[in-house]
Amino acid sequence: MQPLNATRPAQPQSYDPSPSIWSYRFQRLWLTPFFRRLISLGVPAFFMILSLGWFISDDEQMQGLTESVAEMRREIEGRPEFLLNVMGIEGASPALSETIRTVLSIDFPISSFDLELVEVKARIEDIPAVLSAEVRVLSGGYLSVVVAERDPVVVWQRRDAIVLLDQTGAFVADIFERDLSAPLPMIAGEGADLVVDEALALIASAAPISDRLQGLVRMGERRWDVVMTDGLRILLPEANPVRTLDRVLALHDVQDVLDRDVLRIDMRHPERPTLQLTPDALTELHRMRGTFISNGDQNG
Amino acid sequence: MSMLYQSQRAMRAKRQEAMRRGVMAILDIGSHKISCLVLRFDDPEGFRAAEGVGAMAGQSNFRVIGAATTRSRGVKFGEIDAMQETERAIRTAVQAAQKMANTRVDHVIASLAGARPRSYGLVGEVSLQTGTVSEDDVARVLAACDVPDLGEGREVLHAQPVNFALDHRTGLADPRSHVGNNLSVDMHLLSVEQHAIEALLHCIKRCDLELAGLASSPYVSGVSSLVEDEQELGAACVDLGGGTTGISVFIKKHMIFADTVRMGGDHVTSDISQALQIPTSAAERIKTRFGGVVATGMDDREMIELEADTGDWHHDRRRVSRAELIGVMRPRVEEILEEVRARLDAAGFEHLPSQRIVLTGGGSQVPGLDGLASKILGNQVRLGRPLRVQGLPQSACGPAFSACVGLSLFAAYPQDEWWDFDVPADRYPARSLKRAVKWFKDNW
Fold it and tell me: Coil, helix or strand for B319?
């Protein structure tokens, strides 16, 4: 039994499901495709462009941004994954290895971002003793340099220095910088380095007399002289020097011309080989023939 | 009349614009519920019939993409009574339908459930000048109809040419290019009360919508719930709504009569409420759950709890048998049906070749109604459901939504009305520039 003046629970207000005029209008506006695109695309794009423009227009901010980007880049570059610790040089003599290290003068450890491999390769190949080089960054911070060295084949005697040349005539090293395992043929004369291959061919064909061969001299940058240890010279022509030398050797085989008392064998005109005898031999020859010709030196 | 012509043409123009835009809303303002459908027209050119594929009753070129129903407020007898309330209810329905469709609708086609429609049959006759019926002649014959005195404060809602006759030949659907001397037309004119239209216009304007068409609710329910044969051979559609019961008679696919009985399901509810001393909402619930019109012995034993929360112990624990409930409902339903019978008799429905009557609307869901209706209205009674249209949710497929579906069909395929034809040149005021332009257009 409840008292007559009992408070009854308040009747729940009947809920009005209808939207207010403004929410209705707003929803209709929101369902308008143009408005929707404007809000969802246009306005964000506008604000993005606006803020970007404001940011760019401020130099200080821009500087800070570039600095922080650079800092980030440095951090990434400095990570141990990108660090090079060791350089290994393959295919080079110890002296050349030392030269390469000196030339490159890289302070390890160094980030692989700071190392321009193409430039390193160019710098190594600039060393005269290096024919070609390959530079690679291997895993584990290893900079691998594979070098093909130039092999010296001749000694070129110049007025100022004695140097080693390879087959192409390229400079390899000073003669004092290398310990040569075997003696190399010697060439001399201006422009001799330009025709090293011809010199090598001459030396090869002069193999029968190699024990007496002193070297080759380039005369007037056009032809060769073969110089023997006893001072005998074979003057070769400009054209076909190897064949001419072979003829001389054939002459030597038959008549032992090189063992005779001869000062020069002049083959400059191949059709007319000319011998210059030593003065003693000439005197003796005149004496044997019964003629005397005074010394040319005295007659002028 | 000229004002009407202008406003109807303006509505037609808006409808065309909505078709171009591809989205239109349907608003059925009833006394019990307000429903809104959002239609999308895929192909404004209309359906192109291919071989073996018909137009599917004109529903193949639109699709329902949004549907919402809300409890109606402020509507009495199918007429807007409290504008603010109705406006809110319309907003609720439109907003929910828009949300479901995820698009905004600007154009709306609405139906008027009540507003005391009155049908008139008009006849017009002209003699042809050229011997061949041209479009201009059709316009002239339509304009030649004698408009009856509609009465104070009444407005024309529909004016549809129903039948054309050329000399002695009648029953022409399209008289153009036929040869004859005398062209006459039968026109069906439906007038409604002006204040109902004005209230509806005001409410729709307050919801920021544009009215693209107006239709009478009995007419559109008939369009959707009568099958094609029934429309062709003659049938009546009885739309048992909440506040009104709409009657429309169709023959040869044209509406020839429409009327409303100002009684409906809400009156049944209020009867229950009064008889059983319960609130209206409880009465509505009991009516829909246990209601019926034919009592059997079983119903005496089926007891319905009348639960209430008044604090009076005895009052809160009453029980009634279902037979008692039926005893309350049946007289009112009979009264409605008898009134319908009277209206149909007044319209001369018995002279029609077919006496088919289709019951639709929310009230037709009462169990046993078809049996009761066949006793009162004749034995060719069936319960009708609206056509299926694409995309309509299952919850909106029942007979209560036949006016909605009919409005959709009406929106997609409007009936030719008087104002779809040009005004003949001699109807323009003399000395009008328009008249000169029209004369030039017609003659060159």
Answer: strand
Q: What is the dihedral of CA A244, A246, A252, A257, to 10 degrees?
A: 20
| CB–CB contact B98 A31 (8 Å) | yes
Sheet of B356-360: strand order equals B254-261, B245-251, B235-240, B356-360, B381-383
Q: Are B22 and B418 in contact (CB under 8 A)?
A: no
- Which residues on chain A place their C-beta less than 8 Å from a C-beta of chain B? 2, 8, 16-19, 21, 24-25, 27-28, 31-33
Partner residue opposite A19 with nearest CB, options B91, B208, B311? B91
Tell if the CB–CB gap between A32 and B92 is shorter than 8 Å: no
Query: Tens digit of pLDDT for each residue in B273-312?
Result: 999 888 888 899 999 999 899 888 888 888 888 877 778 8
Distance CA B85, CA B80 (A): 9
Q: Which residues pair with A188 in a beta bridge?
A: A157, A217
Calpha distance A214→A91 (Å, rounded): 32
Of A2, A17, A31, the CB nearest to B104: A31
The pair of structure tokens assigned to B320 is: 């009634």
pLDDT digits (tens, 9 = 90+) for B95-129: 999 999 988 999 999 998 888 899 998 888 888 88
Nearest-Cα residue of chain A relative to residue B103: A31
What beta strand segments (E) does B252-393 contain?
254-261, 303-307, 317-321, 356-360, 381-383
Determine, for residues A31 and B102 on separate chains, whether the beta-carbon distance falls below 8 Å: yes
**Token code pair at residue B176:** 């153009």
Instruction: Tell me which residues of chain A have a pLDDT lower than 70.
Output: 1-3, 6-14, 292-300
Give one DSSP letter per residue of B52-113, joined into a string.
T---GGGTTTEEEEEEEEEE--SEETTEE--HHHHHHHHHHHHHHHHHHHTS---EEEEEES
Distance in angstroms (rounded) separating the CA atoms of residues B243 and B72: 11
Measured in Å, how far apart are chain A's first and last C-alpha atoms? Answer: 169
In this prediction, the answer to ipTM > 0.85 reads no
- Residue at token pair 């929410």: A23
Element (H, E) at A197: helix A196-205
Q: What is the dihedral of CA B145, B193, B351, B239, to 10 degrees?
A: 140
